[in-house]
Amino acid sequence: MAEDGQPWRPRSWTIETPGVRLERRGAHELLVGDGRPLRKVRIRVRPYTGGLRASYTPVLRFSDGALAHFDLHYQAAPLARLAERTLPSELDEIKDLDEAIGLLSVRDPGARLLVRGRVARSRISTTLGKRAGAYVYSGNSPILETNALAAVFDSNLPAWTRKELNEFTPRLLALYAERMGPPKWGRPMAIVAWSGPSPGVASASGSVLPGAVVMELGGEGLLQSSPRIVKYLYGFLGHETAHFWLGQTVHQARREDAWITEGGANLIALRGLEQLAISRDSRAELQKYLDDCLSSLASGRSLRDETLEGKDAGGHYTCGAMLFLAAEGAARGRNVGADAFTFVRRLIEANRSDGAVSTRDWLTAFEAETLNSTLSKSVLDLVENGHDNPADFFAKLFVATGVRHAREGAEIRLL
Questions:
Q1: CB 3.0–4.6 Å: which of 138, 151, 263, 398 could bond 144 by disulfide?
Q2: Where are the alpha helices (DSSP H) in 312-372?
Q3: What does the pLDDT look like over 69-108, one tens digit per residue?
């Protein structure tokens, strides 16, 4: 559905094959014929660049005329085995749709094409599957290629933005690959579009897909660099690309395990900026995470409670970062050269085969660093049941894992 609650495909697709029409059925559109099997259907598409509810923008339009199409919006599944009269109004439970596999081939003579880290000229194909959507870029902007990254940045981006992205993004992805091993989806992609210098606006939005991070920037407020904007770009890319490892190479086993992927990505992003000499001291940011974490766990709330939507879900990001900080401290206690990347890589490699990380899996890795089963049990209790005094819990956890801090009454100050 579009943001106004109406279907978007009828605004974008014109069916040119005689006798075929587009019908809405529940959450899906159906191509319906005159009773004969549909072998070939011609559709004229006007790129729909508006936002959707709970889904990816169908087409990203670049200011230089390039387009990036989200491939799963072209996924089709045959329903020939089901008589139309038996179709339910809602198709989401039909297994055939979930398992439908197809091939999307994009042809644009002379253009540069990019999908899933692969670069080509004029023609490229990608396999469609429900759980692995991707944007297919087609245009003439230069494509930045390294061993760890394939990226395309709108050629009309403000010069300072292009410079920052060209210099920062490949260094970040190279560091992540070196420290955390190969990501699941192959060479990562980054796509950044520019919507133009709209007056009185400074907009930045983005999302992460399997093996790809996508951003849309715009507004006259971004024409000039500022520390706030640069910090946002670094923070967004640092956190979201960390999900290529924590979130995709291994994913959370259950919804309540989101503190692992979100909290881990928070700490990885901070440590990555430090190692790239972009941020010399993450203490202030970590202190904010700690303060926010203690606030979110007030009144004995647990991280399991943080599955609630909205503001309270932030505990996954902040308390998760604090638990990873403790794991980093424990790893450093055993090896002075260890850091958050050391712990995360061990966690990934221990769970790479099945691809899922649960709280129990995390605690197994944590206990391997601390050699303290009692400490692991206390962390499990916090996650599942909360704590009457979260500040007291973290103070004791930090003492046990060597995280430098000072206790000041009901507060904890990281050193």
A1: 151
A2: 315-334, 340-351, 359-370
A3: 999 898 887 775 444 445 554 444 555 555 556 889 999 9
Closest CA to 324 of 269, 391, 390: 269
Q: Which two tokens stand for residue 61?
A: 């339009």
Q: Using alpha carbons, list the distances in angstroms from residue 371 to 201, 322, 327, 345, 400.
A: 53, 19, 12, 18, 11
In one-letter notation, the amino acid at residue 243 is H
CA angle 401, 352, 373 (to 5 degrees): 30
Token pair 């960390």 in the structure block, residue: 242
At residue 29, the 3 state secondary structure works out as: strand
The average pLDDT across 234-253 equals: 96
* 149-161 per-position pLDDT tens digit: 999 999 999 999 9
Q: How far apart are CA 289 and CA 322, in angstroms?
A: 7
Q: How far apart are CA 401 and CA 89, in angstroms?
A: 55
Q: What is the pTM (predicted TM-score) of this model?
A: 0.90
